[in-house]
Amino acid sequence: MEQMTLYMNLVLILVFVAGNAFFVGSEIAISSARRSRIRQLAEDGDKRAARVEMLHNEPERFYSVTQVGITLVSLGLGAVGMETISILTDPWFVAAFTLFGDSEALLKAAHTVSYVFAFIVISFLHVVAGELAPKVLAFHKAEQLSMAVGGMINLMYLTFRPLIYVMKISSNALLRVFGQSNLEGHGESHFTMSVEEIRMILSASEKDGTLAREETEMIRGVFKLDEHTVREAMIPRTQIRALAREETLAEALRLFRDVPHARFPVYDKSLDRITGVVAIKELLSVMAESSGDKLDDVSQRPVGEFAQAPYIVPNSKLLSDLLKDFKRTRQQMAVVIDEYGGTEGIITLEDILEEIVGEYEDEFTRQARRVKKLVGSQYEIDASMRVSDLEGLVDFPFPRDDDYVTLAGLFYKRLGSVPAVGDTVQLEGARLTVLEMDNHRITDGQPPHHVAPLRGHGGGRGRRAAPGRRYFSRRPDGAGRRGDGVHR
Question: Both 107 and 54 in a single domain?
Answer without folding.
Answer: yes
